[in-house]
Predict the structure.
Amino acid sequence: MTRTIPARRWQALLPALGLLLICNGGPSFAATQSPIALPGDHPLGSIPENSDLRQRDLETFISASPAVAQKLARGRFENPWGTWQRQSIRSGPSLYLVYSARRDGSWPLYSQGSWVAKKDSTSGAILQIKLFLKSDPGTFIRVYPDSGRVYLDLVIYGGVLREGVPLPFDWKTCLTIKTSAIIEATRATVDWALLEPDPAQYADVSILAGKIRAGLTSLRYADDGGLDEEGRPVYIATGLPQPAKTAGLNCSGFAQWVVDGLIRPETGAFVGAAELSQRLEETRKSSVVERFEEALDPYFGLDWTRNLAFAARAALESPRQQSILESDLRQSPFSLVAPSRSAVNGGREYLEFPDYAQDAGFPTEGLAALLWWQAIHDPGYFYLASLSEQDKRGLRHHYHVAVLLPWFDSGGAFTVDVFESAAETSLITLSARTAGQMVHLVRVKASRDFEAPGLSGAGD
């Protein structure tokens, strides 16, 4: 049965319920891209090293009293791996000792190979060390002493992949040891190959992202805008044609546009908004939600993405599917996340990352790590995201849909191309905008055989 409740009805109620309204807001956020991860990293086996500089400065800077270390002038030094900047940074009760690698004329604290030690500003003790494996503030080794032993945590894009891995070194040795020596000493206990993906496996995703990007120039945002089974722009709620002069797509319609661009070359047909609007009430078991389904349609975004993934799977992979839930992402490789994206701040005060929540997914704080893990273990797929939050009564509303394409470039750098409401944004801005909310992901097979649907056939 197709929906009889207009999709815009519950959207109009969101502000009154204390919810953020994005899908109706248009692509005004398109210019707020703020990429943090830097390109140009080396393979893990040739990561830049600064151990010789740390050995030279052990007594005068690293092991010196906080007063002496803080007064030591900032310096820049050359070694066989490049140019490094040494500095101390005071933050709260701690002093941070930093050796950062030069990258494109500057010295980001988190550039690959950089070393940051957290020093107690009273006792002078080194409390922990962070060694950056990629030029990303959330991807590092954390090394720390505990009860006479030294341990390692591996944090990948904010997700704590390994915790408490013992190291065969004493703490003083760790102050000057090479990053490569730590990696070699833990080959039996840490799967370092996870950080060395084969870029060739992601060609379809990166090519698809480029074709989507090129197709944006022909699109515009339109409230409640989608496509019918002939590819004509219609209003999702009523199925009526959109006026030609203002025809466009909202967040749901744009996700449909992407999937239609993959399906049509295979089948010669579009999915159609009416089919995608099917409410999947049988997948939900909550009696609390049931009484709101007709009135508010709170699971519109979730059902839309599941229906899209189901249609894509039938056309591109397996026509004999077992369940419409088959494409849901339900497994997480980590149970903790590092809350701080700062290169210097933070310690081992990790936050719990819960298991998959039925019809809600995962907290958005773990989105980057989830996409990285999926890209590593399931290359060649992209994801439709349904964002949701609870209103003042505790009822969850899926209010926004985004298209996420994770891939690795020829240098092994991890990239997530993000498209929302006929515009390109970024994972940084999406995550910041949805902090404290939930994201549900369904996977779709990528293909370079994408043909961007036009918006022809609109009404007068």
Q: What stands out?
A: The longest strand covers residues 396-408.
